[in-house]
């Protein structure tokens, strides 16, 4: 895993944030985690990080959030040339085929169903670590 791996979790549910933080800690995954509580917060954080040259390496994006949903965030990211390259994994409770199709149409890099138990979150973290922070080449900070 690169030393500079930064994960932005865009999630409005405090319980899911806690599960992800716990899973990362229990797995020993070395990643700098930042949390955005909704879509607008995520865009503000990414624009500020861009200006500081510390963009996230990977974004985990929930779909159902207040103020701006995940689809709107994904569309805004892909429309912004300075953020369009960031890999986005949609991480949601939705299993609806229409949501999967729409996320990929908006150029999501992957779509994962959000688990409900800590052991399942650990499995997701191991998957993220093995693929996104191991095998895949991620953009470095700009």
TrEMBL record:
Coiled-coil zones: none
The keyword Transcription regulation is assigned to this record: no
InterPro entries from the xrefs?
CheY-like_superfamily, Sig_transdc_resp-reg_receiver, TCS_response_regulator
Keyword Phosphoprotein set for record: yes
Q: Which GO terms describe its biological process?
A: phosphorelay signal transduction system
Q: Which keywords annotate this record?
A: Phosphoprotein
Domain named Response regulatory: residues? 6-129
Q: Which residues carry this modification: 4-aspartylphosphate?
A: 62
Q: Which PANTHER family does its entry note?
A: RESPONSE REGULATOR RCP1, RESPONSE REGULATOR RCP1-RELATED
Name it. CheY-like chemotaxis protein
Q: Which organism is it from?
A: Deinococcus humi
